[in-house]
Amino acid sequence: MTGNKMKIWVDADACPVVIKEILFKAAERTGVQMSLVANQPMRIPPSSCITFILVGAGSDVADNEIVKRLGAGDLVITADIPLAAAVIEKGGYALNPRGELYTTENIKSRLSMRDFMDSLRANGVETGGPPVLNQNDRQSFANQLDKFLAKYTNTKNIKSRKSSPPPW
Q: What is the pLDDT of residue 64?
């Protein structure tokens, strides 16, 4: 982290527009620096708090860029479970667009389930996708984000995730 200030990183290619809108408002309200990382151009509001990083095409290029730049205590918004695991390993926090915090306690089971579903799909089993993001999901995300930001925007010296419990 630069200057002991937490930063928000967004896995922006797969992040729903409504979640990005919540994030834009939160960054402006709190002054927290936020970077959206994607392999395709996207519009962001003009803001000194919000930046966009365009990476090359390819699988996991955006994820790798986030992990490379991530500081301990930073928050990553992603539904990508392997990225969330890498974030946790590096001392960051990971929150999915439905408001679920990935933790050291639940990430291994999430990875196992993801791998199991991948193997089913590889064998031709139709597994379907996640349900459509609904109003409850958006509210849950907004509530968890607000709790996180309330904790860390009032703290000058953010500790590593490995040495402190989640903020909520």
A: 95
